[in-house]
Amino acid sequence: MFYLTKFIKGSLSILLFCLFIFLFLFAELVNKLAIFDNFPGAFFNVNTIFLSIILEAIPFILLGVFVSAIIQSFVSENTIEKLMPRNPYLAVIPAALIGIIFPICECTIIPVVRRLIKKGMPAHVGVVIMLSAPIINPVVFASTYFAFKSTPYMANARMFVSFICTIIIGLIVYRYFRKADVLRTKNHVHHHKHHHPQKNKLLTTFYHASDELFDMGKYLFIGAFLASLFQVFFDRNMLLSLGTSTAGAPGVMMGLSYVLSVCSAADAFIASSFSSTFTKGSLLAFLVFGPMLDIKNTFMLFAYFKARFVLFLMVVVPIVVYVTIYIFQFTVW
């Protein structure tokens, strides 16, 4: 019964994706059909945005699942233990800076961190990597710097505030989940017979990568679809009326970053388009919060982590980001 349910879910995801591809390629033809005479054009916009999110995320998803599978096949628990500092408090510092060496998108990082935690990495260290790597990396720094040419200090502020936020969140996670199993339990286990260990490691890597890809794919599709609905139908004029509030604007922009679900390598250009309306603190909130938590990676988190743990992050992350930025904009700017 489990495999039948999994097959149905996977098939529906593929059919949904194929439908959007068809509408994208033949939108004009479909729009001319009599039965679609009164069909709102907004739904074709949903289709276009959905595909843009998916096509933007797929290369990073593929990278993520293969890195995850390589970790599963080639990285031992002992290796993880040797690399991480013994002190749980000091361990969060190199974890927050790992994106400098490995610039990874927020879509890519979730399966990688899940695999590292499964291999023995402490949950709080994995969370710090998951939240910081998509922001604190050279690619994001460069895109933010060029997006805010008139205010280049925004790039430095984004890196600094993200570093502080991820450290605080990691320590809070350690306080409440230091001995807890945060990973979602799989209902099935794959057994592979290894007659030739060295050759089978490569084959096993592809097995794990395919499993991760199809497991994550359906959650990516659902999240991207919801994000595209919000982008098309959400009234942005209402947001603009709140943009000048020092206290309220950061929260508004955090909410906007959540529903837009833009990749961290490109979100700075969207944030800069609001520069004339929103405060600098609110723009910074958009840049820091979005890569940590948005619609599509929320679905991915629920796919890999226990619901209680994900809900905890959904409460802690926005509070820490909001408070940190609120203090930062009054003390530094």
TrEMBL record:
<keyword id="KW-0472">Membrane</keyword>
<dbReference type="InterPro" id="IPR052923">
    <property type="entry name" value="UPF0718"/>
</dbReference>
<feature type="transmembrane region" description="Helical">
    <location>
        <begin position="125"/>
        <end position="148"/>
    </location>
</feature>
<keyword id="KW-0812">Transmembrane</keyword>
<feature type="transmembrane region" description="Helical">
    <location>
        <begin position="216"/>
        <end position="234"/>
    </location>
</feature>
<comment type="similarity">
    <text>Belongs to the UPF0718 family.</text>
</comment>
<feature type="transmembrane region" description="Helical">
    <location>
        <begin position="12"/>
        <end position="30"/>
    </location>
</feature>
<feature type="transmembrane region" description="Helical">
    <location>
        <begin position="91"/>
        <end position="113"/>
    </location>
</feature>
<protein>
    <recommendedName>
        <fullName>Permease</fullName>
    </recommendedName>
</protein>
<feature type="transmembrane region" description="Helical">
    <location>
        <begin position="309"/>
        <end position="328"/>
    </location>
</feature>
<dbReference type="InterPro" id="IPR005524">
    <property type="entry name" value="DUF318"/>
</dbReference>
<keyword id="KW-1003">Cell membrane</keyword>
<dbReference type="Pfam" id="PF03773">
    <property type="entry name" value="ArsP_1"/>
</dbReference>
<feature type="transmembrane region" description="Helical">
    <location>
        <begin position="160"/>
        <end position="177"/>
    </location>
</feature>
<dbReference type="GO" id="GO:0005886">
    <property type="term" value="C:plasma membrane"/>
</dbReference>
<keyword id="KW-1133">Transmembrane helix</keyword>
<feature type="transmembrane region" description="Helical">
    <location>
        <begin position="42"/>
        <end position="71"/>
    </location>
</feature>
